[in-house]
Amino acid sequence: MFGQGIALGQGLLSGKVKVFNDFIVHTNIDAESGISIGIEGPSNAQMRHVDNEDGSIKVQYKPMVPGYYKISVKQNGLHLKGSPFDVPVYDSKTGPEQPFYPKSSLAGHQPYPHLDDSGPFGNPNKVKVSGRGLFRGITNVQSEIIVDTRKAGLGRVNWTVSGPGNVQTRHVHIVSGLHKF
């Protein structure tokens, strides 16, 4: 179940350090009623917002270091569709034209040799997913899903399993870019 509003804007797709990044939260009620916004990441991010008095809020955040930030937007305790948003934040000097790699990588070296550098983060459309667990599940029988990200580029692998009951999942890292769930 999601909150009734929607959050949109460039600041939910990517951001830059030491500048304010914007997005808009649209609601079908009083703009600030029941809206909560949280930002988690490698640094604190200064945040401010303005009620546009048209059922929307302009939100701005200013992170201080590059990395991935998780932005949660909730209305009355429920995440809006798409929330939490995983947002890559770049150094203002390099910008999105340069590939972003985690800070722990060695300077000047590609930390993930299997990556296709077709863009700042590769192409998630190149992720391949297979396995019998995609199409059919049997109670108390283990299913398997293989996720191949080797040609997709840099990014995170997140997964959820939804259904009428609780499902235990396990992630097995086979080789760099190949995962089994």
TrEMBL record:
Filamin repeats lie at residues 1-89, 119-164. GO terms for molecular function: actin filament binding. PROSITE patterns: FILAMIN_REPEAT (PS50194). It comes from the Eukaryota. InterPro entries: Filamin, Filamin/ABP280_repeat-like, Filamin/ABP280_rpt, Ig-like_fold, Ig_E-set. One of its GO terms (biological process) is actin cytoskeleton organization. The keyword Ribosomal protein does not apply. Keywords: Repeat. Belongs to the filamin family. This is Uncharacterized protein.
